[in-house]
Amino acid sequence: MRILITNDDGIHAPALRVLQEALRPFGPVVVVAPDRDQSATSHALTLQRPLRVNRIADDIYSVDGTPTDCVVIAANGLLPERPELVVSGINHGPNMGEDVTYSGTVAAAMEGTMQGVPALAVSLVTRAPADFVEPSRFVAQLVRKVQEHGMGRGTLLNVNLPHRPWSDVRGVRITRLGTRIYRDSLVEKIDPRGKTYYWIGGLEPVWVREEGTDFHAVEEGYISVTPLSLDLTHYKTLVEMEAWGLAP
Ligand code: MN
To answer: 29-71: per-residue pLDDT in tens?
Structure first.
């Protein structure tokens, strides 16, 4: 199985090489990742300028673009053959609840899904220095299962791994997206030339405590696996709105 690994933390993220080694038993594994940190770039596609690719090794490339650019380039010509699986991560930080809409990690997996390639997004829930060996081994296990069971059209898996000694990880839970409590703040300052600038900040994420969610699973020490759908349609509202009687 030909595997494409990308991320949004950039080509220098330590998790990339560890994950690449862990997935080698499945077949050729190529890394195509942004040349710098592109976290929170969501599903951005670069259309206003050309993209440059830097070949670091036969199976490692960096791109001066977004995670989505990386998947598009890899799947449509950079690689001799299209990948059969996209693995995005392992992100250094959580991607749970509504945050998946900001996530470059999740968006790269979504792009894989849109290209018709099964895709996983994987995140380790810490920003502290971390060991990616055991998490990568879990990703390999999940890849084996995906190979066995396949994945439905338009779906992807969003995995969040708790940060604790691996022997203390309590198990795996299949979850739904949780609800985040946003505590964003805006810092306003004056630059050396007297102009105002803003910096979007915020405290570490906090979620509503709800059984069955990604956040709850991770907090309880479980690995969270959330199946996601690209179809964002809200079907209940669709039916209700048919009765609104809107007319041109
Ligand atoms: Mn990131």
So the answer is: 999 999 999 999 999 999 999 999 999 999 999 999 999 999 9
Residue that is written with structure tokens 């699986």 in the block: 85
Quote the ligand 1 centre to 38 CA distance (angstroms).
7
Q: How far is 147 from 198, CA to CA, in rounded Å?
A: 46
136-167 CB burial, b ≥16 within 10 A, e <16: bebbbebbeebeeeebeeeebbbbbbbbeeee
User: Cβ distance 146 to 120 under 8 Å?
Assistant: yes
Residues ≥6 apart with Cβ < 8 Å to 188: 196, 197, 198
pTM of the model: 0.95
The fold of the 3-179+208-233 domain, in CATH, is: Stationary-phase Survival Protein Sure Homolog; Chain: A, (3.40.1210)
Nearest to 69 by CA among 4, 20, 12, 15: 4
Helix (H, G, I), strand (E, B) or coil at 151: coil
CA 211–ligand 1 middle distance (angstroms): 26
For residue 93, how far is its CA from the centre of ligand 1 (angstroms)? 6
Phi/psi of residue 53, nearest 5 degrees: -115, 135
3-state helix, strand, coil in the chain (%, to 5): 30, 30, 40
Separation of 94 CA from ligand 1 center, angstroms?
8
How many other C-beta atoms can be found within 10 angstroms of the C-beta atom of residue 233?
A: 8
